[in-house]
């Protein structure tokens, strides 16, 4: 694969709806160029999950990123789904191996890669805000890495269902004031551009969490992170996780190690130019 990949132009793509705002084409394009890897990476806005698989086969797309709203629905069209992606119930990566399409989820490995640069995970406690696909990926990955997550979500049935799938604690939003943990991770979209004045939790409780991470990366410093910094917490944006989940995709597609620092600088430059911080 490596030798073949170095000599031909390979086709990669992002599928979702919408896709115009995505930084994946910029990040992956820059990574491939830096690696000297002849490849194209295009974004396609499609209307249903069947179109994703049809286009991958028709255009001989070697690997794809999958984003909202197809991460769950595309699974039913694949030949195979990796065990972790199956447990999460969402796929963000497809690898095309000679016409056989397999789905993976790199959000969990991306999160762990990023957290490992920042804090210890084993033996540490985490409060996860949200119970969607990103939260499911986070909970599974944290448990596998020796952490103890507690899930807090607006829709309590979803918090309960997530917690029951992975054997962890859960609670309603009202419980947040009674919790303490080594790290709080926001997996909700609350505070994302353009609604940058919103925050997913009451500021007065942030002191219960010495470390606060937001999976949102636009803006780089969300209202949650600004409030947490003011409360004396150590903060981390979603940029690092975004870079590492993308880097893990490139590893799955090419079996090569991508230039993670270069990818991070590329993404940060664009976000800072757009006034994302
Ligand atoms: P999702 O499946 O739609 O889940 C969203 C979760 O947020 C749900 O649990 C939802 O609660 C909750 N939520 C939404 N709006 C809310 C509100 N106004 N108040 C309280 N809770 C609210 O989305 P996802 O795929 O998990 O993605 C979530 C976020 O993570 C997005 O911002 C995405 O960009 C980010 N993300 C970042 C990375 C990265 O690499 N940095 C990777 C993946 C995702 P209910 O259950 O009550 O609806």
Please specify the SSE layout and strand pairing.
Layout lengths: L1 H6 L2 E7 L7 H12 L3 E7 L3 H10 L4 E4 L13 E2 L1 H6 L4 E5 L2 E5 L2 H10 L8 E5 L3 H12 L3 E5 L3 H11 L2 E3 L11 E4 L24 E4 L8 H8 L3 E3 L2 H16 L5 H14 L4
Parallel strand pairs: 1-2, 1-3, 4-6, 7-8, 7-10, 8-9, 10-11, 11-12
Antiparallel strand pairs: 3-5, 5-6
Quick recap of the structure?
This protein has 277 residues and is α/β, with parallel strands linked by helices. It has helices spanning 2-7, 24-35, 49-58, 83-88, 107-116, 133-144, 156-166, 223-230, 239-254, 260-273; strands at residues 10-16, 39-45, 63-66, 80-81, 93-97, 100-104, 125-129, 148-152, 169-171, 183-186, 211-214, 234-236.
Features:
binds NADP nicotinamide-adenine-dinucleotide phosphate; six-stranded parallel sheet; alpha/beta; disordered N terminus; 12 strands; 277 residues; Rossmann fold; six-stranded mixed sheet; globular
Explain what you see.
The chain has helices at residues 2-7, 24-35, 49-58, 83-88, 107-116, 133-144, 156-166, 223-230, 239-254, 260-273, and strands at 10-16, 39-45, 63-66, 80-81, 93-97, 100-104, 125-129, 148-152, 169-171, 183-186, 211-214, 234-236. With 277 residues, it is of the alpha/beta class. It folds into two domains: 2-105 and 240-273, Rossmann fold; 109-237, NAD(P)-binding Rossmann-like Domain (Rossmann fold), CATH 3.40.50. Helix 6 links the parallel strand 7 and strand 8 (148-152). The site of NADP nicotinamide-adenine-dinucleotide phosphate has 25 residues, from helix 5, helix 6 and helix 9. NADP nicotinamide-adenine-dinucleotide phosphate binds at residues 107, 110, 130-135, 153-155, 158, 187-190, 192, 200, 215-217, 238, 241-242, 245.
């Amino acid at each position: 694969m490596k030798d073949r990949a170095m000599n031909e132009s390979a086709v990669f793509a992002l599928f979702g709806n919408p896709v115009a705002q995505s930084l994946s084409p910029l990040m992956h394009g820059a990574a491939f160029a830096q690696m000297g890897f002849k490849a194209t990476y295009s974004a396609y806005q499609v209307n249903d999950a069947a179109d994703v698989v049809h286009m991958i086969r028709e255009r001989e797309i070697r690997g794809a990123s999958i984003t909202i709203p197809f991460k769950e629905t595309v699974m039913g069209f694949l030949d195979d789904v990796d065990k972790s992606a199956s447990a999460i119930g969402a796929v963000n990566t497809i690898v095309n191996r000679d016409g056989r399409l397999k789905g993976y989820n790199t959000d969990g490995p991306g999160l762990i890669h990023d957290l490992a640069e920042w804090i210890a995970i084993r033996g540490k406690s985490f409060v996860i805000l949200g119970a969607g696909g990103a939260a499911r990926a986070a909970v599974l990955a944290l448990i596998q890495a020796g952490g103890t997550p507690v899930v807090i979500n607006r829709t309590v049935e979803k918090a309960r269902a997530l917690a029951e799938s992975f054997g962890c604690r859960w609670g309603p939003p009202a419980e947040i004031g009674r919790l303490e943990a080594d790290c709080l991770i926001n997996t909700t979209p609350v505070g994302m551009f353009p609604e940058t004045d919103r925050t997913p939790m009451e500021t007065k409780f942030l002191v219960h969490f010495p470390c606060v991470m937001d999976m949102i990366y636009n803006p780089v410093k969300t209202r949650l992170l600004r409030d947490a910094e003011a409360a004396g917490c150590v903060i981390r944006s979603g940029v690092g996780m975004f870079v590492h989940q993308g880097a893990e995709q490139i590893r799955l597609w090419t079996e090569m190690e991508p230039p993670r620092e270069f990818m991070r600088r590329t993404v940060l430059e664009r976000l800072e130019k757009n006034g994302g911080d």
